[in-house]
Design brief:
Blueprint lengths: L1 E4 L8 H9 L2 H6 L3 E5 L5 H7 L10 E5 L5 H14 L2 E5 L8 H9 L2 E6 L3 H21 L7 E8 L5 H11 L5 E2 L4 E2 L3 H4 L7 H7 L4 H24 L2
Parallel strand pairs: 1-4, 1-5, 2-3, 2-4, 5-6, 6-7, 6-8
Helix pairs in contact: 5-6, 9-10
Bound molecules: adenosine-5'-diphosphate and magnesium ion.
Adenosine-5'-diphosphate (ADP) binds next to helix 1, strand 6 and helix 8.
Length: 235
């Protein structure tokens, strides 16, 4: 199974979601092996992963960097990796790297998650850059419509997720779904990953600080909620 995080606009939460979901309790309980695949030449997962010391790498989650390949070669490599891992999470690069990887991600994935903020800027970028690519994929395979879902990100922590869901459902074409769960804006998501930590490792490191502990547990709950919803959407 292939799940990709796709958004031509940078800074919407693709890498954060890919990383956190790969190491989530829900995914680790549901899959024997999880491949976290970075296709983004910025290499932010690689930089983070290289800081992780081997001793604390959970064996179920593997990291693979796939760079500098043509779409044909990438497709072959992904097929090979699909045989190695039960689920692959693909961090697809933003627009600077061109549309080919976005199109590849949209066509090879069983689930395409599109992190998006409720901003006119992101909405414009979606219509201009992502929708035309998704429409091309749909023209070839209309069934793919079931695989495209918005994940609302940077949501105000006090906002009602039902309202956010209703908002995106209203503005999106019928072929694009929207998760019921969203990723709230939380400073923990900016801070946890120093020194290559995962959210749960960060939680262990701030155990003595009640305020940080409650914040990181909220973030963990956000991720687990999204992970559980993703499982209901996968074949
Ligand atoms: N829900 C969130 N709340 C607060 N900060 C976040 C959240 N998600 C991501 N960030 C931060 O925003 C920045 C961009 O996120 P990132 O996941 O790297 O986006 P992308 O991969 O789409 O460019 C990073 O510094 C990240 O730590
Ligand atoms: Mg990124």
């Amino acid at each position: 199974m292939i799940i990709s995080f796709l958004q031509t606009k940078g800074g919407t939460g693709k890498t954060t979601l890919a990383k956190c979901l790969a190491f989530s309790r829900t995914f680790r309980d549901s899959f024997d092996s999880i491949g976290l695949v970075e296709l983004d030449p910025q290499g932010s997962i690689q930089a983070w992963h290289s800081q992780r010391d081997n001793g604390r790498r959970p064996h179920k989650v593997g990291f693979v960097s796939l760079l500098d390949s043509s779409p044909e070669v990438l497709k072959e490599k992904l097929e090979y990796l699909s045989g190695m891992y039960q689920v692959l999470l693909l961090d697809i690069p933003g627009e600077s790297t061109g549309k080919l990887t976005t199109r590849l991600g949209a066509s090879v994935s069983d689930l395409v998650l599109i992190p998006m903020r409720t901003s006119t800027n992101d909405e414009q970028s979606f219509s201009d850059h992502i929708l035309p690519i998704l429409e091309k994929v749909l023209a070839i395979d209309p069934e793919k419509g079931k695989t495209f879902h918005i994940v609302p990100t940077f949501v105000h922590p006090q906002a009602n997720p039902e309202n956010i869901h209703a908002y995106f459902t209203e503005i999106m074409p019928d072929t694009i779904g929207c998760l019921n769960s969203c990723l709230p804006s939380r400073s923990v998501f900016e801070n946890f990953s120093r020194e290559g930590a995962t959210l749960s490792e960060y939680a262990a490191s701030v155990k003595k600080n009640a305020r940080h502990t409650s914040q990181v547990h909220r973030a963990i709950d956000d991720i687990e909620r999204i992970a559980k919803e993703i499982l209901t959407l996968t074949p």
